[in-house]
Amino acid sequence: MIRIVHSGDRRIEKFNARPAFPEEAESAAAEVLAAIRKEGDRAVRRYVAKFEGFKGRDLAVDASNVEIDPRLARAVKDAHSRVLRFSKASLRKAWTMRTPRGGSAGEFFTPMDRVGVYIPGGTAPLASTSIMTVTLAKAAGVREIVACTPAGKTGEINPVLLYALKLAGATEIYRVGGIQAIGMMAFGTKTCRRVQKIAGPGNAYVTAAKRQVYGYVAIDQVAGPSEIAVLTDGSVDVRWIAADLLSQAEHGSGWEKSLCVCTSAKLAEDIRGEVLRQTKTLSRKALVRRVIDRDGILIVVAGSIGEGLDVVNGFAPEHFEIMTKDALKVMKGVKSAGAVFAGPWTPESAGDFVAGPSHVLPTGGAANMFSGLTPDDFRRRHSFVSFTENDLRETKGTIEAFAAVEGLDGHGRAATIRFA
Which residues participate in catalysis according to the annotation? Predict the structure, then answer.
């Protein structure tokens, strides 16, 4: 059912408590990953057959000759060009500062050599995720970009997804999904050499696997079941609010979360009624009903916009829509959110498909400590220092003092010996 509560209600805390990976996902990931580390391709193929149904031996996919409807090709190209433009603009620039005695210090960046991206494809072929991951890696300058996605029993991948992967710059594509895809990319096999970093969203099992391979490879973040929060003051059509809440509830895992915070009980009732009405019209209404039945949609009545912001910041949503007057002004109060969509003409789906920033965002409350995927996630940051003799002379006493305190006389000598 869809509950309506007031801010301060303890049920909000229960709604906010959403583990990114349940215990069953953790144990399954441990078992599959251990087998892949030991057996390589043999284990990967076994689990692909078991969980995905594909029993063929060739896991690599050739996307060189893929063709799609011209209308869809235009849409993919439009999304790609917008995301690429945003990605290039967002890249951090190298910088240098002068040291007090004539030297220099700063930062510069180099692309990773080989990265992996995971593209979900279980309940829906997420062609947009191809754009929202591979494009960023390409903009960062990565030369080898491995993409893994589930293909089902036939082993065939949705052609639009393949087209998007190729356009965005994927250099290798494999029909491998789930935990087995994460293991293959993290540990490497004869079929697929290991990568340096894995990025991309996935279900609870993929998320648990990514967490467990951290250290063997870098990972982007915890990105599990989708979620959205909408803050509204009644200035935006309730039909729009309801549609936006449902846009995330239809993803398919059943663990999605949609939070609406509004400023009156009457508005809350109107939104609940509209959500239930629109649910009946959706092609994936059975999946949405699973979310509703698990209390995955909650409407909170707050006494003010400021109070509503506190509720949303406590939820730390993946997506946060501000559907109020002066939305950009209200946005200044945001503290915890993966991505913010400000104003009535900015539905979350614009961010999912075309706006520019990546839709790979932290979920499960992780937005209070992680940020969304950026091109810089595919680069290495290097700090540098270039002292002059006078710089070292000026700091020698400080170096020697710390070396003495920490009992590291070799550290002190490395500075002292230069003036002996």
Answer: 318-319
The two domains 3-18+225-355 and 23-222 share their CATH topology (first three levels equal): yes
In this structure, are residues 114 and 196 in contact, taking their beta carbons and an 8 Å threshold?
yes
Q: Which long-range contacts (CB under 8 A, 24 or more apart) does 192-196 make?
A: 192/59, 192/146, 193/114, 194/114, 195/114, 195/115, 195/116, 195/144, 195/146, 196/112, 196/113, 196/114, 196/115
Burial of 412 (0-12, 13-18, 19+ CB in 10 A): middle
| Beta-carbon contacts of residue 87 (< 8 Å; ≥ 6 apart) | 135, 136, 139, 140, 356, 374, 375
Task: Give, rounded to a whole angstrom, the gap between the first and last alpha carbons of the chain.
Answer: 78
Domain range list for the chain:
3-18+225-355, 23-222, 387-419
The structure's pTM equals: 0.91
Q: For residue 389, what are its two tokens?
A: 């003799």
pLDDT along the chain (420 residues), means of 10: 92 84 86 97 97 93 92 96 97 97 98 97 81 97 97 91 96 96 98 97 89 95 85 96 94 86 96 96 92 92 96 96 96 95 96 93 89 96 98 97 97 96
Fold of 3-18+225-355: Rossmann fold (3.40.50)
Q: Between β-strands 319-323 and 227-232, what pairing exists: parallel, antiparallel or unpaired?
A: parallel
Q: How far apart are CA 378 and CA 139, in angstroms?
A: 9
Q: Which CATH number fits domain 23-222: 3.90.78.10, 1.10.8.640, 3.40.50.1980, 3.40.50.12780?
A: 3.40.50.1980
The alpha carbon dihedral of 9, 10, 15, 17 has a sign of: positive
